[in-house]
């Protein structure tokens, strides 16, 4: 199936083709016809599946058909984080570049006045975090009475972050008659209960369960003592020429400390976590996507908005204590038919976490030690230490070092932080982020498909 088979307008297809995409992902193949038909939708799809384009493309199509446009928003997309709000809105601008529709992202951490002014001029598609949207509602600077389409994106994360009361307040002010779409990485009891309150006879779509690790991601474990983790990571950067690596830590303090160590070693890096100001977070994201930073050290919550085409490497400097978070972390590489690599640096007191992860993903991960960084108590390895090409034990494959595996094309990432919160009409020019939530509408022509 091609995008041309989905019934999208010429202007949208032109914008999709301009980004180099021709084949929709499974979630897009299933979701786009449902949304175009006007039905409510309950979709289970995690980050990296292309879900953002799965709702932005048909919403653009529906809103561009017909009626005179009111000043009030006609579509509302609720997201859990400001980074995701920026990326969804950029996806709207990118694919709506040939349409007479306007969009705006509103989120906290920045001044309200520019948002108020843009809302007063009139907006077709509003992307918002719940807290800031409630601020506007209380100040009567936004009117949701004309909303025709509502999207709850990453609904499971919004519930985890305590937004359920805010969401219910927002829903209470909206028209009863509207099309509603819910996207979630899991269909928990809480999600199903929420869905029943505002979805009307929804179609159900489910792809890429959360506990399914991407087959296109090579996953390896390097056993190392805790005190040698930072020296080992620096050694890997120096010997493999890595150029774009997302590094995960468990805590904000740990992210700051590791970023300082990398900087001291001459590796351009920045930390990304909830204590950073909005300006610092946007700047770090943009510099990472532009290639000005080699490493971005992030906590799990802060990383929700990081979506980059062809991100080659994810490093678990510390394993998460929640197994599902491991799957979410490594899902940021190996997207849209590209290959990626996930390395986990595991010390003795993290081995229980590792066992839980392997149980969840139903596979034993390849376990390595690196000469010069052997742990004081070497655990039994579950895979050969030497690959068929005669590499040293513990050395990541050369083909994955320093460049994304696959076709080696330049990433199509764009800078989702740019112009965030500004209203644009017609032209967009921003590039979509890989998969979802950034808005990758599918596989690039000519890429390997898995």
TrEMBL record:
Residue stretches of biased makeup (Polar residues): 388-398
Gly residues compositional bias, start-end: 427-441
This enzyme's EC code(s): 3.6.4.13
UniProt GO molecular function: ATP binding; hydrolase activity; nucleic acid binding; RNA helicase activity
Enzyme class: hydrolase
Keywords assigned by UniProt, alphabetized: ATP-binding, Cytoplasm, Helicase, Hydrolase, Nucleotide-binding
A GO cellular component annotation in the UniProt record: cytosol
Domain of life: Bacteria
Ranges where the Helicase ATP-binding domain occurs: 32-205
CDD domains: DEADc, SF2_C_DEAD
Name recorded for this polypeptide: DEAD-box ATP-dependent RNA helicase RhpA
Species the sequence originates in: Azospira restricta
């Amino acid at each position: 199936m091609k995008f041309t088979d989905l019934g999208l307008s010429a202007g949208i297809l032109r914008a999709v083709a301009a980004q180099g995409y021709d084949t929709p992902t499974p979630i897009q193949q299933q979701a786009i016809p449902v949304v175009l038909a006007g039905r409510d939708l309950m979709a289970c799809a995690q980050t990296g599946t292309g879900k953002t384009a799965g709702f932005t493309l048909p919403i653009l199509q529906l809103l561009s058909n017909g009626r005179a446009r009111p000043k009030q928003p006609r579509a509302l997309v609720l997201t859990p984080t400001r980074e995701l709000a920026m990326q969804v809105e950029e996806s709207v601008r990118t694919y709506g570049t040939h349409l007479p529709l306007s969009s705006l992202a509103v989120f906290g951490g920045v001044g309200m006045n520019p948002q108020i002014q843009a809302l007063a001029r009139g907006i077709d598609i509003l992307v918002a975090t719940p807290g800031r949207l409630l601020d506007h509602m209380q100040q009567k600077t936004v009117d949701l009475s004309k909303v025709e389409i509502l999207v709850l994106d990453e609904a499971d994360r919004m519930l985890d972050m305590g937004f359920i009361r805010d969401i219910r307040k927002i829903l209470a002010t909206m028209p009863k008659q509207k099309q509603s779409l819910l996207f979630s990485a899991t269909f928990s009891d809480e999600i199903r209960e929420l869905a029943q309150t505002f979805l009307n006879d929804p179609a159900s779509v489910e792809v890429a369960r959360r506990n399914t690790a991407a087959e296109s991601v090579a996953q390896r474990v390097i056993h190392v003592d805790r005190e040698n983790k930072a020296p080992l990571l620096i050694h890997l950067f120096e010997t493999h020429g890595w150029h774009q690596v997302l590094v995960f830590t468990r805590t904000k303090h740990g992210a700051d400390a590791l970023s300082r160590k990398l900087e001291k070693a001459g590796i351009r890096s920045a930390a990304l976590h909830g204590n950073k100001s909005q300006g610092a977070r946007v700047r770090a994201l943009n510099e990472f996507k532009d290639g000005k930073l080699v490493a971005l050290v992030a906590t799990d919550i802060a990383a929700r908005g990081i979506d980059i085409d062809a991100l080659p490497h994810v490093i678990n400097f510390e394993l998460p204590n929640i197994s599902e978070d491991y799957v979410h972390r490594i899902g940021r590489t190996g997207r849209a038919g590209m290959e990626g690599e996930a390395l986990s640096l595991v010390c003795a007191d993290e081995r229980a976490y590792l066992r839980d992860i392997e149980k969840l993903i139903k596979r034993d991960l390849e376990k390595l030690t690196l000469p010069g960084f052997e742990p004081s108590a070497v655990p039994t390895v579950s895979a050969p230490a030497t690959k068929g090409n005669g590499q040293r034990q513990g050395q990541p494959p050369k083909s994955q070092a320093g460049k994304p595996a696959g076709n080696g094309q330049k990433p199509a990432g764009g800078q989702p932080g740019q112009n965030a919160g500004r209203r644009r009409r017609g032209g967009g020019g921003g590039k979509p982020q890989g998969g979802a939530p950034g808005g990758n509408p599918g596989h690039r022509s000519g890429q390997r498909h898995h």
